[in-house]
Amino acid sequence: MKNKIYNVLVVDDEQAICDVIVDALPKRKYKVDVACDGQQGLEMARSKEYDVVFMDLYMPVLDGCEAIKMIKSVYPGVIVIIMTAAANREMVEKALKYGANSVMVKPFRISEVQSILKMLAPQSV
């Protein structure tokens, strides 16, 4: 699957965070879509199968935990990476219980995005 293009969904209400992830992923290997809240991310995930989802936990309309739970019920194999600035251990544990695979603490660097992808989906990086 060397030439596979990976579908990535970034769900965050902070545009700057979305931009960091979009910039971190080479366009020849990744097709990146962006949603500004959990509900929009859920709707996008219902209409397109993603390989990786970067999900903020605290967002308007629908929080990241509930969005993760619903996305994983449709696509149990999707890799979900939590992005959070809050150190709310309960919320992170809940997201992991719902199927998230990893956590990135904001602010993060482009190299962290690439390292997590390499660890979770080595064929994609």
Task: Give the helices and strands, then pairings.
Elements: E1 6-11, H1 15-24, E2 30-35, H2 38-47, E3 52-56, H3 64-74, E4 79-84, H4 89-97, E5 102-105, H5 110-120
Parallel strand pairs: 1-2, 1-3, 3-4, 4-5
Helix pairs in contact: 1-5, 2-3, 3-4
Question: Care to describe what's here?
Answer:
Helix 1 (15-24) links the parallel strand 1 (6-11) and strand 2. Helices cover 41% and strands 22% of the residues. The protein has one domain (6-124): Rossmann fold (3-Layer(aba) Sandwich). The chain has helices at 15-24, 38-47, 64-74, 89-97, 110-120, and strands spanning 6-11, 30-35, 52-56, 79-84, 102-105. It is α/β, with parallel strands linked by helices. Strands 2-1-3-4-5 form a five-stranded parallel beta sheet, with helices on both faces.
- As laid out across the biggest beta sheet, the strand order is 2-1-3-4-5
SS-based structural class?
alpha/beta
Compute the number of strand runs: 5
Helix content: 40-55%
| CATH topology value | Rossmann fold
CATH architecture, by name, is: 3-Layer(aba) Sandwich
Residues in β-strands, percent: 15-25%
Radius of gyration: 13 Å
> How do the SSEs run, as a string of H and E?
EHEHEHEHEH
- The total count of helices amounts to 5
Return the CATH class.
Alpha Beta
Low-pLDDT stretches: none
The CATH superfamily is known as: Response regulator
- The average pLDDT score comes to 89
